[in-house]
Amino acid sequence: MEDSYKLKKVISIGTVSEITGLSVRQIRYYEERNLVEPDRTSKGTRKYSFSDIEQLMIIANQREEGVQTTEILRELRKQGSNQSVRNNMIRGQINAQFNKKN
Fold first, then answer.
1. What is the C-alpha to C-alpha distance for residues 42 and 75, in angstroms, rounded to an integer?
2. N or C: which end of the chain has fewer CB within 10 A?
3. CA angle 81, 82, 83 (to 5 degrees)
4. φ and ψ at 79, to 5 degrees?
5. Which CATH number fits the domain that encloses residue 35?
């Protein structure tokens, strides 16, 4: 998969802070609000992906526009649900195509 590098959680919170301009405190707050989910090392260090960074930038922009974190979370869940529905539809179409009697 060509975008798989975007999903690897290898970036420290300090680097994420530098890249995004968000404070470490803000990033942790967004984690507490379930808006971003970093991995944790065995020692508890947070690790983020490039996708997480993109997500944090979207969140920061929405917050600047006055959108509440509860609304952002609701929208993220809705998008996740829509993605899940789309994935199921695609799987169904693929299965239907391969299970056709010729």
1. 32
2. C
3. 90
4. -65, -40
5. 1.10.1660.10
Pairing of the two strands 39-40 and 46-48: antiparallel
Please report, in angstroms and rounded to a whole number, the separation of the first and last CA atoms in the chain. 32
What are the structure tokens assigned to 44, written together? 């508890």
In terms of Cβ atoms closer than 10 Å to its own Cβ (0-12, 13-18, 19+), residue 36 is: buried
Share of residues in the chain with pLDDT > 90 (%)? 64
The count of domains in the chain is 1
- In this predicted model, what pLDDT tens digit does every residue of 54-91 receive, in sequence order? 999 999 999 999 999 999 998 888 877 555 556 556 66
| Structural domain for 63, as ranges | 4-98
